Request: fold
Amino acid sequence: MKVALFTALPLAGAFSSGFPPSFSRPSSTTLKSTATAASDEFVVACVGDLHMDPRKMEDYYTGREQFIPILEEAKAKHGNVALCSLGDLGESKPVKIDTTELFAGTTACHELAAEFLGSFGVPYEVIGGNHDLEGLDEFATDAENLELFLRAHGKPTPHFSRQIAEKTLLVGMTSTLFRDAQYTSHEVTVDVAQMEWFEQTLIDHSADDGWRIFVFTHAPPNGSGLRVLQENHVVNGCCWLNHSNDKQCRKFIELVREHRCIKAWFSGHFHLGQDYQDSITFPTIDPKD
Reply:
């Protein structure tokens, strides 16, 4: 079995629930050593909070050109290749002269992001973060903004499931509230329908049957042990998934502990990159045990 996941662009954190630790933070160097193809071999590129600004695209193009040779090599070897974006696609500030409209969440934002993510030459998946429904001047409701997000990226639902290799799933869930948030608009809120779908997906793809699942959300679950920003996200109630709902907030890590098919969970949100020991963690055991 050969596996490679890489985050050549910054801002993505990860925790693993039991997969060999060498996978969590691979570099382009380790990817190039991938050997012979197999049905369970795959390569996934994971990008964090892009916050794209159409006035400053040079760094995005440079990063893309670093990705493409790795992805092309994997395509030639086995073809089990994909790109996953963790959301927050646009810059949360005006990008045009003489306007106060934020770029994040607008039609122009998602069309630019779709064009960019689609230019890597492999299928891409994307989930929404706390800024992806921020098109306040263009859309009156979260539902309208979400519809645009889905349409721009060709998504039938806010969540996704992609079988990337034999008995290997990539699974993602989107934040669907901004204007309608009970507390801060920047809480990353996965709705009940997605949570129920996620739990059923885990039940239907058990570790006992040989399944491996890699999860992608914008914010991490509480209990992941990833480094957080106390003075920003924690005190404002927008640190973890469904932060303000205690039961729902706990549910995600409870599912990780219950379902050993979850091998890793990738998240962004904090803009901390991978320069910390606790940007990758292994919270496999319930504290009470």
In short: Helices lie at 28-31, 58-77, 107-117, 142-152, 192-204, 230-234, 246-258. The two ends are 32 Å apart (CA to CA). The first helix runs from residue 28 to 31.
